[in-house]
Amino acid sequence: MPDGERILNWTQAYSLTEPPEHMIVVGSGVTGAEFASAYCRLGTEVTLVSSRDRVLPGEDPDAARVLENSFARVGVNVASRTRAEKVERTADGVAVTLSDGRVLEGSHCLMAVGGVPNTEGIGLQECGVQTADSGHIMVDTVSRTTATNIYAAGDCTGQMPLASVAAMQGRVAVSHMQGDAVKPLKLHHVASNVFTSPEIATVGVSQAQVDSGAYQADVVKLDLATNPRAKMTNIQDGFVKIFARKGSGTTIGAVVVAPRASELIFPLALAVTQKIHVDDVASTFTVYPSLTGSLSEAARRLHVHQ
Q: Taking a C-beta distance cutoff of 8 angstroms, is the pair 270, 250 a contact?
């Protein structure tokens, strides 16, 4: 269990007053990857324990590959395909026993393996608010719970655990309870970002959904190495990937890997939400030179001659 001193959960990590000497991060999802990236750049030796064969198993595989290469270049050690069986305090640090028998020694250990909703004992059952077996509050697409006139928003609802989603749920709830016209929440329109270095931003249809046949799409991936602004600012890693619905050419998904990808995804999120054709994205002027130029160029390469 985290003790807040040497063995930490993600909230306790913020209470450290100086960078750890060697942080062992257990968990290679978004939280683990973000903390590993940040601690490395603070000068901390970092070891990331991943139960899967790559970091960020739930993200775009091309994006995860770029991040792994970045980790290798800056010195993050990745122990993959193994689990942390036990974490113990030592005289001056921690010892993490892995499922493959190895024991990792470090100064601190961060447990980045997810959380559970804190919804017990607050009177939900008495109010008629139904929860799932996981403890999440069940809501519909306008944030209503199973109890009349009670709404819920945020991580406790089991939707995407993002501040932007929580805020949208709240806005939809307030509008709905006031009798205003609202659009139901559509999670496939959510733009999300992994705050590593480089950042990884996504929206809409994913590579996994295309590969599985769930969506028929034309895909273009354009490396930022071709972008003049990237060359000027010495950006070595990153790409833009756009998914266009096969046949119609509608923009249905995108991935951006770049410094501040969180700022670059919005034009493509707008295109996905408003069902904008890739030709319309391509024919919109961008500033030269700029990283946004790669957004329009990727869209341009999805043009289908009629």
A: no
The pLDDT assigned to 149 comes to: 93
State both tokens at 186: 């559509």
Q: Is the model's pTM score more than 0.85? A: yes
Helix (H) or strand (E) holding 47: strand 45-49
Torsion angle defined by CA atoms of residues 8, 262, 254 and 269, in that order, rounded to the nearest 10 degrees:
120
Task: Calculate Rg over the CA atoms of the chain.
Answer: 22
Question: Helices 292-300 and 266-273, interaxial angle, to 10°?
Answer: 40
175 with 217, same domain: the answer is no
Domain finish residue from 185, 214, 231: 185
Number of alpha helices (DSSP H) and beta strands (DSSP E) in the chain: 10, 13
Range of the domain at 229: 188-300
Look at residues 185, 205, 233 and tell me which one is the last residue of a structural domain.
Answer: 185
Query: Quick check: is 71 in a domain?
Result: yes
Supply the mean pLDDT for the chain: 95
- Over residues 184-216, the pLDDT tens digits come to 999 999 999 999 999 999 999 999 999 999 999
Kindly state whether residues 41 and 57 are assigned to the same domain: yes
Distance CA 76, CA 126 (A): 49
Q: Is 263 exposed, middle or buried (0-12, 13-18, 19+ CB in 10 A)?
A: middle
Phi-psi region of 168 (alpha: psi -120 to 50; beta: other; left: phi over 0): alpha
Query: At 122, is the secondary structure helix, strand, or coil?
Result: coil
Residues of the chain with confidence (pLDDT) below 50: none
* pLDDT given at position 116: 87
Neighbours of 17 (CB within 10 A): 4
Indicate the SS3 state at residue 184: coil
